Amino acid sequence: MILIIIPAGASMCLCAMISGLHEKGFELNLRLCYWFICFTPILLITLKEFQYYNLVRLIKNKVLALNRSLKKLVKWENIEGQHHKEMKLKIIKTHLESFRLIHSDIVDLTKDVQAFFGPFILVSVISAFGVITIQLYYIFATLIQTLHFNIPMTVITLIWTATQALLILANVHICSSTRNVCNEIGGTLITIREAVEHPEIFHIVQLFSSQLWHKKIQFSACGFFRLDSKLITSIVAAVTTYLVLMIQFHLSNNENILSKCNEGDASNGTM
């Protein structure tokens, strides 16, 4: 899959070349070329990204269920009052131990998902950065009539750019929301510790809190960068910077070409 993503990042560049070759008279089936070079990589990337999205969403649902179960312990203690105190403490202790093990299993599941999808996410984000920058440059060049894209080519460019941007936004959103839900468990444990004042419960809550601190649920691309809002900010800043540089180079290059053409016309006129 990673070997497919790497060339897919430059697929729209190839589409531009194919369109140019077709306009120069080469016999090409543009529909087949666009399908195998553009839509197939988009489909594969989308399916893989949605697999990752669904797995992270599954992890989020498990954490939400865990947090709801912890909150029920506090409500159950308040409802039951002081009757059968020993039995209630034993039940709360058993549930807390079980929930701590469940949290550990969720963290291990997250690590397995990250180990499998980490390289793909890394290559996908890097590819998306290049694709978005290049396609925005193509759109700019089309607007100033330097490149002449037909309507299907422009639509393909917009679809490709929007797909890359939306996939990154979706995965960053689900990863950030999952991490925020995990952080809520700490507050629930504090509530349990204050509601059930007992040395054994206090000890289990301390162990659980220590586990939350040392075994955090993190989402990253092979450790190079985290999937959070800072990633979106960094991508937007980088795309803007490189796009401005490319546009400035493009405009200066056009000015040089025009000046050379004017000099050539002037020299021909004097002759």
TrEMBL record:
It is a multi-pass membrane protein. GO terms for cellular component: axon; dendrite; neuronal cell body; plasma membrane. It holds the Pfam family 7tm_7. Its main location: membrane. It is found in: Cell membrane. InterPro entries: 7TM_chemorcpt (IPR013604). GO terms for biological process: chemosensory behavior; male courtship behavior; sensory perception of taste; signal transduction. The chain crosses the membrane at residues 28-47, 116-139, 151-170, 231-251. This is Gustatory receptor.
